[in-house]
Amino acid sequence: MLNVFEELTLPNGTRIKNRFLKSAMSEIMANRQNQPTELHNKLYQAWARGGSGIVVTGNVMVDRKALGEPGNVVIEDERDLDRLKQWAQAGSENNTQLWMQINHPGRQSPRSLSKEPVAPSAIRLSNYSKQLFSKPRALTTEEIKELVERFIKTAQIAKKAGFKGVQIHGAHGYLVSQFLSSHANQRIDEYGGSLENRMRFLVEIYTGMRRMLGPDFPISIKMNASDFNDGGFSEAESLQVAEKLTDLGIDLIEISGGNYENPKMFKETEEGKEEIFFINYAERLKALIDIPVVVTGGFRSLNSMEEALLQNKTSMIGLARPLALMPNLPNQMFTGELRNVDTPRLTTGSKFLDEKVGSLVGISYYEQQMLRIAEGKEVKQHRNAWRPLFHTLKSHGLNGLLPRR
Predict the structure, then answer these.
(1) Band of the pLDDT at 397, cuts 50, 70, 90?
(2) In a domain, 23, yes or no
């Protein structure tokens, strides 16, 4: 038996059938009322049947007034409980653990979706023009408490609907990540200043979820190793936050890094090569804590997956883009049909344009493939960057050109 197909038991006793984790990718498939649709059901059913042990949803927002991108699912109350139950049932087939990723964009809400975004402090994103992102308004203490309750409420509804776990999105420069970073969080109250204060928002969300969901329901976090900003959230601080959450009883930590200002999470793997992101950080983290740690990004061969697990550098293999091309990838590796996977490097034919729109085109390409899977069509692998770009414009207009993850 290969290591990737060994069962994993979480600290709370939940058993995961294998070591494949489908990491969150934003599907942007919600309807105009921000509800999940039949497309979500079909897409997540395909991933469940494809053999992954854990499948994490694209980010589900907690406030309709704060969207990260067009097409986000939003859960504020139980109005869409029946739709959520259908989604949970479809994505839990084949003994799959379907976990809901819960998020708030904070200042990373585009101007077209939020005229006055909120954030820990009134600090604008530095790499984007005023036409794309408005300067955020600093949250009041009362509003922070209300947002904590929103995260908890969404998690409760996820459990009621039949999702098997939840993931707090604490990475990629969204609101939880903003609170953790002294670059984005310059408050002088109990939510700013020291690392203990900056992690208070996250700790209150987690402890509130644990109180309401119980000890046996999996709660995880996606967390930055660093935000790669001078004076921002550092690797040393990230290790301290992970230790704190471990002491509080969190079940799993998924590692990522970067934000819209330093988008390390968008990094393209050079075709034909393999570069596993954040693996060295994960190894250091695993030496400090005794809960599962997941590395996502860069795995392209069964050999590297096996080696990482055997050397205890990661507890699971986090995959995103490969599963948007091959939702059946775990099953194919189990049967021996597949040992290596390659993701195409898209090009417009212009090196200048590729540098300007490369990450956006890549995201659009995989969104297009997810839609094809949801519609019951075959994935179309190609290297033409113009096709996903035109698809995005057709589906979302100029809003589709805004940064997103």
Answers:
(1) low
(2) yes
